[in-house]
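Quick entry between incubations.
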Amino acid sequence: MAAFGTAAGRPLSGRGGSPGFRFTLYALLSVIVMYLDQRAHYLEQVHYALQAAAYPLQLAVNSPSAAWRWLQESVQTREALRAENARLRAGARDLELRAMRYEALAQENGELRGLREALPPVADRWLPAEIVNIQLSSLRQRLLLNRGAANGVFKGQAVLDDKGLIGQTTHVGPWSAEVILITDPEHAVPVRVERTGLRTIAVGAGDTTSLALPYLPGNADIRSGDLLVTSGLGGVFPEGYPVARVTEVHRDAVQPLAQVRAAPLAHVDSDSEVMLVWFRADHPAAPAPPASAGGELKSGNPAMQPQPAAPKSHAAPQAAPHEPAAPPSRSAPAPLPPQETAAAQAPEAPKSVQAVEAVPAAAAVPGQGQP
Amino acid sequence: MNPDSRTRLLLSALLALILTVLPLPWWLDVARPAFLVLTVLYWSVNAPRAGGLAIGFFAGLMLDVFQGPVLGEHALALSLITYIAVREHQRIRSKPAIQQALIVFPALMLYEVLLFMIDGWTGHPVTSPLRWVHTVSGALIWPPAAAILSYGAGHRA
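Done. Structure below.
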């Protein structure tokens, strides 16, 4: 310890005061940064810059697995490639056959709705993104994508794979974007049971294989095998995209709420490529208008999404048994009065989840819902 | 000698950060020690002047960028245990590695308790008991990790 021996004589306070003083300084700085990041959202630019600074390291960590994938692809045999080609061609033919009647059906649908012409698809354009293979946080369900603001990615953008919904972007850097998966406990998707039109909220259960539907009353019409699609409420995901399939319904006479589990349709844990989707803002099935969505998303709290759905889910459990043919209302986001949406954006996430929780509970008690 | 130990400090911190974000199978990932925290602790104890609190703070900030729900969370927790390590460095340094591991364990617990509380306050709670596993694995890996980190400095000790 000769190196430090020379310095051992003088006190540990080098430049910048004693360790205690400097610790107080750093602790204060941390608390201020935390406060700004959490409450005031002044730190978007800082986040953006830090995300950019972190990206080279993330790419470096990713590079061995990327190289391995590239190597695997480049040493594939001719037979394997030919087999894959045949499989893809068969798949494409299937899709073409299925899409053949699409134009006619869309036209017919438009006529049934009293529109002069068929609606364009709600998805305006999409961008494939690769998952950067790094560990963000082991107990949270997050991903990093190799597309960012330079590609037009924005915060709160829907992320899909070929089977269903994956999640939405939370932090966007210039070349990378962090995605919160629908299976993260902090994430909630407003969903609709396709069979009955019953609306509720699917909350992540914290592992890659399940979602929980905690806000359904015990007598809700839901059974194992039901398909859950996005309901279009909440301002992030458009209406009608598949989310999950109900795997388990547990009704307990003592509990006012049913315990329902669902398995996400997207291969949340095994995908290597996903889709970032831009939606047509003027489409009836599109999520809430960008103006109000922007205000909500700035807060960066994905758990806030259940909020706008709350009044709906209040009505849904009561209405469901009487009118199972509740139309899959295309115009879902439109009728939300502006003040309702505004009020929904104000509170913090945990409170909002609690608020939503309280609503179906109240609805389940007879006579307390609507006099 | 000071610049030399600072270079080694930065290099080892970078390596530890890479080890922290390296993708691992799930069961291994849960037991993954907080390498960057251990590295910062090691340098605070063995070269308190080379890095000290600044390294603790900025390493914590890096952890926040990579895995924190809120900026400043890991920075605060790591600053605190770095401060304790720097203050008590002479007492900790004089002990054999096994006893050091017994001191590292409560330090990691303190770090994790702080993270747990901040997670809760800011509305991003992770209540899984698995979050505590790394404190044990971190203490277990301390003796070999400290031996590796002191490898270059061995001839000077």
